[in-house]
Amino acid sequence: MKRVLAAGAALVPLLAGCTVAGNASGGGGSGEIVVGYQSKTINTVTAGTLLRSQGYFEKRLKELGGDKHSVVWRDYDTGAPITAQMLAGKIDIGSMGDYPLLINGSRSQAQGGDAATEWVSVTGYNLRGSLNGVVVANDSKAKTLRDLKGKTVSASVGSAGHGTFVQAARRYGLDPSKDVKVENQQPTVGASALQSGHAAAFAQFVAWPGLLVNRGEARLLYDGGQLGVPTFHGVVVRKQYAKDNEKILRAFLQAQIDATNYLHAHPLEAAESVASATGLPVETVYLYNGAGGVATFDPTVKKPLRDAFVQDVPFLKSIGVIQTPLQVDPFVNDSYIRKVVGPSYDGQAASTANPAAITGTDEVCKTKVGDAATAGEVWVKGEPRTRPVADPVCLLRNVKALQGQGKQIRAAYIPDTASGTRWFADKDVWVEDPSAGAAKRFKPFATQEGAQKYVSAHGGARVVAYDEAVKRA
């Protein structure tokens, strides 16, 4: 419990997505620029924590006019007050999750006038929705979301984690408003409620599912990747501010690209920087932001993300989070990031490949690593780089070989066989399928449900302990 509370204290700012905000600096575009952000929100580090630690925004501002501009960084707890200050004209630039973005745009359009805002770039995204998940206590008897009927579920209402739970629950034949009791709680409170037994499940967004599972304090009941609905975070700006201070906005977006490029080129160093600034375990940060991570970082506004955004509008209205449906077309404006990226924009926006793919050679299996659907990594304690592995069986073989050498495994990551969600190998549910052949005999699943579905469909397949899989791979 102490570990949960300590982690919770570090992660309070996760609630309602991330925000990067400024104190409106006026039409002159000079002077003090206040940037607010949520330091612990993993998918927005390129517009927040990592951007700040590397000093990229300040460097880009200097190029505009020496010491003419100064930046004051402020760390906010939630997205709601950022939107409120934006509507009051006191915040210029913000960064937040897709659902908070919808709320921001809806309220700004309802208020009208100078309060109008627009979504101008993306930070991190996952096309399947794997950034969100539902976890339960390790000793929970629940095997699927259907088993939560009549139970209490902790969620931050209006967040992407809450949205994932509601939409997924409906697919399991549950009415989230009647069949379960949803407690609207901050993640810290919800984590404590789960551990104390006051909540049967905990539905949240990155990095909570991975954090609790990695600590051994929960197991993944539902992987958001099963939903198949894209989730993302993006940068929002007041329209009038953008018009009056386009050079500053473009400097911010260029700095975001600088941070993105650094994350791609130095994934471990970036994860360690974020971990140091936030108090999050670096192994959890790297799960999401590392090479081949759950989050893909690309600032371009992609069609699948925009389409998902449109589909989210009626959903948020149906659960009462927004009153006025957002008019998406006036809210989406990729003209600024298009100018910053340049001629390659359309090609980059059309691509959904992770720019930080896992590459190299699997030293144990002696094969080239390159298939994103199967590639993983082993992080050995004391080594400055992770070791690439070609597939699940090769991961097990690598772990066995390293253990034989007396080396300690800091973390091991591998994609889920069905959903493709990258997860901790030692927290996966492993299935042995003798009919699959030696190279594919062992298969990892992030949830018990996924493993059982495979076993039911493949005669002779059975669930095996991770340690057993390592010994026999």
Automatic annotation (TrEMBL):
Keywords: Signal
InterPro entries: SsuA/THI5
PROSITE patterns the UniProt entry points to: PROKAR_LIPOPROTEIN
Pfam families for the chain: NMT1
Signal peptide boundaries: 1-21
Domain SsuA/THI5-like residue range list: 128-270
Highest taxon of the lineage: Bacteria
SUPFAM superfamilies in the record: NosL/MerB-like, Periplasmic binding protein-like II
Protein name: ABC transporter substrate-binding protein
Species this protein is from: Actinomadura litoris
Phylogenetic lineage: Bacteria, Bacillati, Actinomycetota, Actinomycetes, Streptosporangiales
